[in-house]
Amino acid sequence: MNIESYVVGKWHAGSEGGSELRDATNGELIGIASTAGIDFGEVLDYSRSVGSKKLRKMTFHERARALKALAMHLMEKKEDFYKVSAATGATRVDSWIDIEGGIGNLFTYSSIGRRQMPNEVYCLDGEPDTISRQGGFSAQHIWTPKRGCAVHINAFNFPVWGMLEKIAVNIVAGVACVVKPATVTSYLTEAVVKEIIASKILPEGAIQLLCGSANGILDHVNSQDVVTFTGSAHTAKMLKSHQNILDNNIPFNVEADSLNCSILGPDAAPGTADFDIFIKEVAREMTVKAGQKCTAIRRTIVPQDYVEDVQKALVKRLEKTTLGDPRLKDVRMGPLASKDQQEEVLAKIAELRKSCELIAGGHTGENLLEADADKGAFVAPTLLYCDSPFDKTDVHNVEAFGPVSTIMPYKSPEEAQELSHMGQGSLVSSIVTSDTTFAREMVLETASSHGRILILNESCAKESTGHGSPLPNLVHGGPGRAGGGEEMGGKRGIYHYMQRTALQGHPSMLTKVVNKFIPGAQRPESGIHPFRKNFGQLQVGDTYTTAKRTVTEADIVNFANISWDHFYAHTDTTSLDGTFFEGRVAHGYFVISAAAGLFVEPKKGPVLANYGLDELRFIKPVYVGATIGVQLTCKEKIDQEVKEDEIPRGVVKWQVDVTDETGETVALATILTLVAK
Hints:
It contains 18 helices and 27 strands.
């Protein structure tokens, strides 16, 4: 059976050479993966000219809705994926993290795309800037999708999650992708992509798949493309230094395996709940996915006085870990992904043993459940101890990418901090403590070396997602050895596939280009109150200037009685000495309420409801006798997705500029209304 690639709109089975892919437990042949006959240049051109072109025409909301539909479709097929996943050595729990965790990324980014991004094909970055003194020259930053494609080179350990956590982001951004999973487990990625293609939910060309070698693909990427890599730091360095990447300044994001650490706080002494939580977390990170996680705990940093207790507790817990065929319910840890991986991990353990004491494991496993150690890629949970981690530094340089962790002692918080840094950059560290002073000190002194820090203790343990679980709304990446890049991170990740451009011009021109009111732009007044216009009739910049109202002392007193706001500046003129108030001042909320009374059109019309208030500022005190008026301007229109039984509508943002008799602004706000289409 050949493992197929999906390229240029069709499935392709390489007929020459290729790699034999085998079941990690019993060594049985699954299939052969080959990319022979595939033109990588043609594949990338297809992504750019077909997939990305179609995605760019969709709004963020449309792309996000497609992701949600895809997530729901894949969830219906998850049991099929679980069956395939078992061949990778994954238990049911391991597969749940990979499969349903990956699909969860689609759900999350669907929400981010619909709730945090505009219903446009572009988005704005920050607020506009007025550059000239007279206000006739302004600037606004804008994000637009890159016109290339994303090339995702993924690791073997998460063949589903590794793909979906990346494509969720590039799809929302409007960029097509080519997925290159690690060959050894690519058959699982193939199974998921077959369902993605069959669903026809994403536009054709939005995703392509390469199962097998992709050697040479980097020769064909260009400056509009984005390359992402997950895997070893050694391979990352080799790929990142590719001449085409360097010559054309092609974005290259690296998420590399790292020597992550977990630090036990001095307050978490043996016998405490936090100590037990620490033991459970370290053991879990060693055994989930057989320790084949880029975020697994490799360095276990504990107070010197607790070393013996930690060793005993970890060994006791690890001894309960049953190894064998991951398809069995009683098996808690399966094999590594391949015999090659097993050989590499055992070699790294041997290297670490030159300077570290072996406490447990270090072999291919004993008493395996319905599995053969000779045929399967098993490695027993392995615990080591480094008594002098400042002198014996192999533990900070050698990573065994399997169920392996090394305990090391510290004498003071400063030593713990230094050991944390000696990993030379990691994806994640954790601190198990209930001591807020210790936690604060450790975070501030170690954060520069880690992409994420988990502070874990009894108060959050039940709800914690754990040391090793990246989340789509948080950045996943880290400095130094971890690659210096980042993935996901909510909106931040979307921008990795977009270009930020500074626009300059007259405010009126910029308003029309970006469809958002830029201060200084023309404000046409048609004589028709803008609240009488439906969503489609309204134009950004439409303005209404109200009548005026003089503020009286009775207004202030009455508002104080209604609101029960008796702040001294509104009610006690004898207390104004030494303040910047010159007399009785109107409540800020009275001013904005009075402004609403001036600009609201009371008759029933297209405006359905007040939706909210943003960016309210009280700029100048309003005293008794001041006369205020309002200039109401349509600032931005946001098309809104509505359910079948709801009135078709959109959200309109209005700039409310409240001025006094001198023409100066006293209050400025953005109000939101629901407006019928």
